[in-house]
């Protein structure tokens, strides 16, 4: 794995306040953490009890007799799943989870206290221990109540009821059918089979033995219990899930971002991609900086550097992190530069190097020299075949020609899935993107064969957005077009060009050197293997031929344990993973986006999403 970039992490992170936290906040934070650890321990004990027959029978005997056990200690799979899930959502400080635990544990503790007033319960020391543990859990909930301030989605209760009803019908129906098919006692009425199924949904212990007309195999009992546990977990997930973050980029926010880009757009080559309309923007208190982000699977995924004045970046980052904490979103940043990574690190985020961005200085680019021999030959070969390149700003292209280019770009797309989030604009031919640059390549018969689209990078830079080519065209079209842009960039006042992003570039470069260590060589071999399906090594080599300056880009995250979740969210945002379609009753319950955003009601013509920068890279 790539090493963490310690250069981004100051030796001592700057605290948000100079004063040390008082005992009150420390006590509340400790109490909140204690509730999480209690649930984790109970989940582990319930799992052990399910796997251990003597332990399980002892717990069941205690619950059935004159003993009682601590909160959620029932030696059942449902209780284990419930405790584990509650521990996860309580760790994310969900307010709904806090209320749920208090409503269950509070009355249970009161019942235990009432039971201890009776002699037959009071004489067992284990009951006092159970009451004490349950009481301490309730006290910890009350002490740490202000720590649980993450809000949920308003549609959660309604959707949870629908999911629960469907899940119980499916699980109960399947369980009843299995009981009917495997019952060893003949003549049992349907009501007894349903009752047996419901009891087995709660416990695999002696509870269901009270239905003498039904006797099913052990594997049926366990399967029914597992099905109901899964249904229960699904209902809890829907009930406690984070808000989906449906706020999209409105017209007012887009105008404010464009004003910031006009003043500070030259700082980051990815800045213009903040104008994607499936993102949201949160501004600093002064309005001089903003963070563009999108919520995917409970992850608040920002991209690139904050937009605007670097002195106002901390205010925008604080606002973004506060918003993420309020909704229990996991904060993450894709593709931040080293400068922005340093600022994010001061706010508690860690860094992992993703790869490098290829940036070509137009003044330094030349086709001369032995190192450029391959590029020079590819350029001359395509040129001799009669291909030409037209270089224009989008605003200079007539509407009918732009419509044709959009149609061709869609036809040339490689695959049905559009890709792009952090380094793609998500639309082509939009009237608001007139300063973008289009390169159109035509063959000797004046037929369009390929196109490149670049977004502005400040006043004198371009950043690659979209690459499309006809598969029947001459090999080497992409190289030919990139070289033409670099040689003629002065015609439109461009001084630097940002090309593709090469993931894990340093691994391929350093891993091939003499003296590379075994770990680095192994990591390079793994990446080379996966390059057969994903263009990892090929992108590095395709861009290295232009002799670019490599600028590192970083993934920023709060906790290492969140990296797998962030990876899935990033893959979904970039279009590499597509979740299955939701059922119709779920889709009807979802709120729509704001008017004017892609896919929102009332939007005349949803703009096409572009492919990732790496989509159709030509290989010579």
TrEMBL record:
In terms of domain of life, where is this protein from? Bacteria
Answer whether the UniProt record assigns the keyword Transmembrane helix to this protein.
yes
Q: Which residues cross the membrane?
A: 36-55, 67-89, 96-116, 128-147, 159-179, 222-240
Keywords of the record, alphabetical order, are: Cell membrane, Membrane, Transmembrane, Transmembrane helix
Q: How does it sit in the membrane?
A: Multi-pass membrane protein
> Per the record, where are the segments of Low complexity compositional bias?
603-620
Pinpoint the Phosphatidylglycerol lysyltransferase C-terminal domain residues.
258-556
- Pfam families cross-referenced by the UniProt entry: LPG_synthase_C (PF09924), tRNA-synt_2_TM (PF16995)
Indicate the segments forming the Lysyl-tRNA synthetase N-terminal transmembrane region domain, all copies. 32-238
Instruction: Please tell me whether the keyword Cell membrane is annotated for this protein.
Output: yes
Annotated region described as Disordered, given as residue ranges: 1-26, 582-620
InterPro entries recorded: LPG_synthase_C, PG_lysyltransferase, tRNA-synt_2_TM
UniProt subcellular location: Cell membrane
| Protein's UniProt name | Phosphatidylglycerol lysyltransferase domain-containing protein
């Amino acid at each position: 794995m790539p090493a963490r970039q310690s250069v981004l992490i100051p030796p001592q992170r700057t605290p948000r306040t100079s004063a040390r936290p008082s005992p009150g906040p420390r006590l509340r934070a400790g109490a909140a953490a204690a509730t999480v650890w209690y649930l984790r321990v109970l989940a582990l004990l319930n799992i052990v009890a399910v796997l251990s027959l003597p332990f399980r029978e002892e717990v069941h005997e205690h619950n059935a007799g004159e003993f009682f056990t601590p909160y959620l200690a029932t030696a059942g799979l449902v209780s284990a799943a419930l405790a584990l899930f509650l521990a996860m959502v309580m760790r994310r400080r969900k307010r709904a989870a806090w209320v749920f635990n208090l409503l269950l544990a509070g009355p249970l503790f009161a019942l235990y206290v009432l039971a201890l007033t009776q002699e037959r319960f009071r004489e067992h020391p284990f009951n006092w221990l159970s009451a004490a543990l349950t009481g301490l859990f309730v006290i910890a909930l009350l002490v740490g109540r202000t720590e649980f301030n993450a809000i949920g989605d308003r549609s959660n209760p309604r959707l949870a009821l629908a999911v629960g009803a469907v899940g119980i019908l499916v699980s109960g129906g399947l369980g009843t059918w299995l009981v009917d098919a495997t019952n060893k006692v003949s003549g049992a009425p349907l009501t007894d089979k349903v009752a047996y199924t419901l009891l087995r949904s709660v416990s695999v212990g002696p509870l269901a033995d009270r239905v003498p007309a039904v006797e099913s195999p052990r594997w049926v009992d366990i399967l029914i219990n597992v099905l109901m546990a899964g249904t229960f977990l699904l209902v809890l997930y829907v009930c406690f899930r984070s808000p989906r973050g449906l706020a999209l980029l409105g017209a007012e926010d887009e105008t404010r971002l464009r004003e910031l880009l006009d003043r500070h757009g030259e700082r980051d080559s990815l800045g213009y991609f903040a104008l994607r309309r499936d993102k949201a923007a949160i501004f600093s208190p002064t309005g001089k900086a903003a963070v563009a982000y999108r919520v995917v699977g409970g992850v608040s995924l920002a991209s690139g550097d904050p937009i605007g004045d670097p002195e106002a970046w901390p205010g925008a980052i604080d606002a973004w992190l506060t918003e993420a904490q309020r909704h229990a979103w996991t904060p993450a940043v894709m593709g931040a530069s080293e400068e922005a990574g340093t600022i994010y690190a001061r706010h508690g985020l860690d860094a992992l190097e993703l790869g490098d961005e290829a940036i070509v200085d137009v003044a330094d680019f030349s086709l001369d020299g032995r190192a450029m021999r391959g590029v020079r030959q590819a350029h001359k070969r395509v040129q001799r075949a009669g291909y030409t390149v037209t270089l224009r700003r989008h605003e200079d292209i007539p509407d009918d020609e732009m419509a044709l280019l959009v149609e061709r770009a869609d036809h040339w797309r490689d695959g049905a899935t559009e890709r792009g989030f952090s380094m793609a604009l998500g639309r082509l031919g939009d009237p608001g993107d007139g300063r973008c640059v289009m390169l159109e390549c035509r063959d000797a018969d004046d037929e369009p064969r390929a196109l490149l689209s670049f977004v502005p990078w400040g006043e004198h830079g371009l950043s690659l957005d979209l690459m499309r080519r006809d598969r029947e065209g001459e090999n080497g079209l992409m190289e030919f077009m990139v070289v033409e842009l670099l040689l003629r960039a002065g015609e439109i006042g461009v001084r630097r060009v940002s090309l593709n992003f090469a993931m894990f570039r340093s691994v391929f470069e350093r891993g091939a050197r003499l003296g590379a260590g075994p770990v680095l060589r192994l990591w390079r071999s793994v990446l080379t293997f996966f390059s057969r399906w994903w263009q990892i090594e090929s992108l590095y080599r395709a861009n290295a031929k232009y002799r670019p300056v490599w600028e590192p880009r970083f993934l920023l995250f709060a906790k290492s344990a969140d990296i797998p979740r962030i990876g899935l969210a990033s893959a979904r945002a970039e279009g590499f993973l597509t979740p299955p379609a939701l059922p119709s009753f779920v889709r009807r319950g979802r709120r729509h986006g704001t008017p004017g955003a892609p896919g929102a009601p009332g939007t005349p013509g949803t703009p096409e999403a572009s492919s990732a920068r790496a989509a159709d890279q030509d290989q010579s």
